């Protein structure tokens, strides 16, 4: 299968051979070149075909990272940082071969300050491991993209997820980073101060750079106090538009909702079947409120009024932790639930994000497109941010089906851009969205190229992602 | 007076003459070259000596900006964007001469969306003008650096101010920008979507770049709903440390305070005298809470308990708008009040920002330094962010006094960096803090240089700021 934009790059065979030899000598079995390792490191929850690296290094220290970067730089060989492989747009593929730098063994929490509400972690710490670690501090790290991704990977792709509507995205929650840059040395992008006007915002530049500017070696994150009270609820609507209208009113009224997720009827059907639930198979909002007993009650009452006004049915409310866990487990399993609708098909997960006032129309038009073209394609969205996902189930053996899926994605992106939105709210560009980034950024793409060229002049860091290699 | 780091740069006399001639022909009296205009455009609320531009262009349209940039680029002549001139670290000086590009006539609100809680403005709109414009929408723009700065200037210096503790800084409140870059064309750094993972974060790169990467031509900002209820209060403490401890506890308990400002006894004395107030002349916190009747009451009760625990005296509380306005007018006039303590002296306003757990010690040590060295130097801080300012009153005719003031600033910055903080929370680098940025950023400065070189290869945009020219 060849999908648009996923082409092989030029391979520097001589350099690759030299790098493998040097690293084998220096790292022993921390370098692996077996087919299984290489395949696993080009594998993501993606529709894109695999492009294997030539070797996988399991970094254990910053010194390992420096060594790999220096060696690869000396021989002009790609370095592709790898977290848990849960990215969706081909971010860990190796179109020109090279070294996959697996960061999972760098999984220590380096320091935590309950006083300053911050923590410093190595990139391989996963968000679940971090929250387990923090359990006794009364603090938590709120960003939750669904997958148990690594903090390094979440930083690199500017992840967000279900509760970004309240706590922001990785851009808002990373205080500073250390990064090994193209010269093989480690820099710090900032301090632990809550704010700074000290020069260019290198932290925000690396957040979302998808491994194309350097290898992240530690991340200092803001933390939040665990809310005194958490409440959750579910509400079905007659139409996707009615559900979106309820979201818009909730945001506009300034209700500090912690999560407000939209699942369309296809997604609800999938979730019911997969997670053994019995919800109505109608467009539905999943909600969560954080606060005190008092404020959570107040927020849920305010939302109930909005829901009623939008024709919402039977707003089911629960303060019970177990029921809530079940609810969000079902939401987090939405991807797998959808895939289970048609196990013989592949899934293309794509996301766009639009201004909230355009959300209802954009989702409704997308829904109409799906129906009109006979796709099996559940919609699920972080509706409070104007961000939604479509999972198109398609036959990756059938060139016509691939072409139809690609045409759908193109229409979806054009629709989002026309609405003043962006081609990706949280999945990133990787290989899959380069065409749409070009459309969205226009001449601003030249600045991105200038930055890439200035910081990584040899194009060794994750080449062929975000920007076309050699462009 | 020559202060460290404020040296004249190399002047391109031939290029400057050519540019002035071209612009005179094209712009008529939108170009001004009289001494008064040039002096006014090198003047800021700063201790730094003036370095005059050769001409001032009053841009009225994006086309004017493009023309100036293209002409200056063609002749290698500096372009220094100018807002209201309220920057503090020499950001609008012209060490190599060139054109001051005054943006104050580009002062239109271009669009506002109450539904999306956002607005797009030209750079010359001031924050007060914006809030006046928004009055009937029920929305407001929260960032408040004290001075009635322009939104363009606030964006360029990553401004924050009194209520950043609740609403964040410019980095958190700018959705996207349009910018005229070195080729004289206008680019857009993003969309109106609330979040995006589409490539490098150009928006955050331009926020805080102090005019060194391009000229901002429009800014799309997030807005907030005007709180249903605002309450304010004042509380005196025995020591600066006790006041800081109260701030730390407030933040750690997660009380969503909208403003929490620290004024030391010298500052209180200055404010009482200047604003005709009768507060106790002790370290004092000024507070503001935003919310509903209920939540504001709750927050103020929680704070009152904390204040009592820290030995705070007579927490005076008011929901009255007029009294509150008087309070914050006094706070905003703190700079002028301090200058009035010794009208024959000049004032050096400097700021640092540290992790909140270090704030009490850092302020106490700074206070001890002031006492020990016999400075007249009020301290005032956005304490909730760990950010504080010192205004050192010094005789700018006396080389010894200049040296003593500079040595104090150096100690202050060393103290902040040692505490894991930053050399500036909100004033920016300009010319005054380049030495401290070098210390703070270390090898990361090379990345800033690479970015500058990549985006502005001729170094025409505000040369000699943030980074040394030709470095």
In a few lines, what is going on in this structure?
With 471 residues, chain A is of the alpha+beta class. Chain A has 17 helices and 18 strands. Chains A and B meet through helix 8, strand 11, helix 9, helix 16 and helix 17 of A and helix 8, strand 11, helix 9, helix 16 and helix 17 of B.
Q: What does this 3D model show about the protein?
A:
The structure is a homodimer. Chain A has helices at about 15-25, 35-40, 60-75, 125-135, 150-155, 165, 170-175, 200-205, 240-250, 265-275, 295-310, 320-330, 335-340, 355-370, 400-420, 435-440, 445-455, and strands spanning about 30, 55-60, 80, 100, 110-115, 120, 140, 175-180, 185-190, 215-220, 225, 230-235, 260-265, 285-290, 315-320, 345-355, 380, 385-395. Chain A is an alpha+beta fold. Among the domains of chain A are: about 110-225, Uridine Diphospho-n-acetylenolpyruvylglucosamine Reductase, domain 3, CATH 3.30.465; about 230-335, Alpha-Beta Plaits, CATH 3.30.70; about 340-430, 2-Layer Sandwich (Alpha-Beta Plaits). Chain A has a seven-stranded antiparallel β-sheet, with helices on both faces. In chain A, helix 9 packs across helix 11 (about 295-310) and helix 10 packs across helix 13. The first copy, chain A, is globular, with a radius of gyration of 22 Å. The relative contact order of chain A is 0.13.
């Amino acid at each position: 299968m060849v999908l648009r934009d996923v082409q092989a790059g030029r391979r520097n065979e001589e350099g690759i051979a030299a790098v493998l030899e040097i690293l084998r000598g220096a790292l022993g079995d921390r370098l692996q070149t077996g087919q299984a390792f290489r395949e696993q490191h080009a594998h993501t929850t993606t529709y894109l075909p695999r492009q294997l690296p030539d070797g996988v290094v399991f970094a254990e220290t910053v010194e390992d990272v420096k060594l790999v970067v220096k060696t690869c730089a000396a021989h002009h060989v790609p370095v592709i940082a790898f977290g848990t492989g849960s990215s969706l747009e081909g971010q860990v593929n190796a179109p020109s071969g090279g070294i996959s730098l697996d960061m999972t063994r760098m999984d220590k929490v380096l320091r935590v300050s309950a006083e300053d509400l911050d923590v410093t972690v190595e990139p391989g710490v996963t968000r679940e491991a971090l929250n387990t670690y923090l359990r006794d501090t009364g603090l938590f790290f709120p960003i939750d993209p669904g997958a148990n991704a690594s903090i390094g990977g979440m930083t690199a792709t500017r992840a967000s997820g279900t509760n970004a509507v309240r706590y922001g995205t990785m851009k808002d929650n990373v205080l500073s980073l250390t990064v090994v840059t193209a010269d093989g040395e480690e820099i710090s992008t900032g301090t632990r101060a809550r704010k700074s006007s000290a020069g260019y915002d290198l932290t925000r530049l690396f957040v979302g750079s998808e491994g194309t500017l350097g290898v992240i070696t530690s991340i200092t994150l803001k933390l939040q106090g665990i809310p005194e009270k958490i409440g959750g609820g579910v509400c079905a609507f007659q139409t996707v538009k009615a559900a979106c209208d309820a979201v818009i009113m909730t945001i506009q009224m300034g209700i500090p909702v912690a999560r407000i997720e939209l699942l369309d009827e296809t997604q609800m059907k999938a979730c019911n079947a997969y997670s053994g639930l019995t919800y109505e198979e109608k467009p539905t909002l999943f909600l969560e409120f954080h606060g005190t007993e008092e404020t959570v009650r107040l927020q849920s009452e305010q939302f109930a009024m909005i829901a009623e006004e939008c024709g919402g049915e039977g707003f089911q409310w629960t303060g019970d932790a177990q029921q809530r866990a079940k609810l969000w487990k079902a939401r987090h399993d939405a991807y797998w639930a959808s895939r289970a609708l048609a196990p013989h098909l592949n899934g293309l997960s794509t996301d766009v994000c639009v201004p909230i006032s355009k959300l209802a129309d954009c989702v409704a038009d997308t829904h109409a497109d799906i129906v009109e073209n006979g796709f099996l394609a559940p919609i699920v969205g972080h509706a409070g941010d104007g961000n939604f996902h479509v999972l198109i189930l398609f036959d990756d053996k059938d060139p016509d089906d691939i072409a139809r899926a690609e045409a759908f994605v193109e229409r979806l992106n054009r629709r989002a851009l026309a609405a003043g939105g962006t081609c990706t709210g949280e999945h990133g560009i990787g290989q899959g969205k380069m065409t749409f980034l070009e459309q969205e950024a226009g001449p601003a793409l030249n600045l991105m190229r200038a930055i890439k060229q200035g910081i990584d002049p040899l194009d060794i860091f994750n080449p062929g992602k975000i920007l076309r290699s050699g462009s």
